[in-house]
Backbone:
């Protein structure tokens, strides 16, 4: 029987182990996680750029916002006739919004499997032992104690290193920052 997962991990090792080896601190590979976060952010952002019509999505969002403002204004004024007209228009707008949401899932379908495989590789590699010590302010702003509580509740145990985070939270912080930079560089009109 063919070991497909072994082949996939072998391919991921071929791609990511050289990056891991170049990390200045291979025992605590924070830089490697940053590079992987950049790669994953680039893949997902480029997929969003080319699989989702950004102009149409922005138009639909703008139209929905205007519709909601008009409806709220008509309700405030007590203009029943205008409210009825707007509510008659609502199913058409909801259909367009539904189309927009389904278009936003296209990139996820394309990127989901590769990203999950990269996550499994990270968890099974030396990256799994990564610990980052955050400055106290960043520790509290990122709600790290909440994540530690949830992790302790789900998996048992508790965080033992003060202001420390593991690879997954570090990856999430890096990915958030990288995604915003890449989106800005690729000319996205809105964040997130």
Residues:
């Amino acid at each position: 029987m063919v070991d497909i997962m072994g082949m996939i991990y072998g391919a991921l090792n071929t791609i990511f182990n050289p990056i891991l080896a170049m990390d200045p601190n291979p025992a605590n590979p924070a830089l490697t996680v940053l590079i992987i976060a950049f790669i994953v952010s680039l893949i997902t952002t480029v997929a969003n750029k080319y699989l989702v019509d950004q102009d149409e999505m922005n138009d639909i969002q703008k139209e929905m916002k205007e519709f909601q403002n008009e409806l709220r204004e008509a309700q405030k004024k007590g203009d029943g006739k205008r409210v009825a007209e707007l509510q008659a228009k609502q199913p058409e707008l909801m259909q367009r919004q539904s189309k927009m949401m389904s278009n936003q899932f296209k990139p996820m379908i394309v990127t989901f499997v590769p990203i999950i495989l990269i996550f499994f590789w990270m968890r099974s590699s030396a990256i799994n032992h990564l610990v980052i010590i955050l400055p106290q302010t960043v520790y509290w702003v990122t709600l790290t104690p909440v994540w530690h509580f949830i992790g302790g509740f789900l998996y048992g145990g508790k965080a033992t290193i003060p202001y420390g985070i593991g690879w997954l939270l570090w990856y999430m912080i890096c990915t958030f920052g990288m995604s915003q930079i890449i989106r800005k560089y690729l000319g996205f009109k809105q964040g997130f």
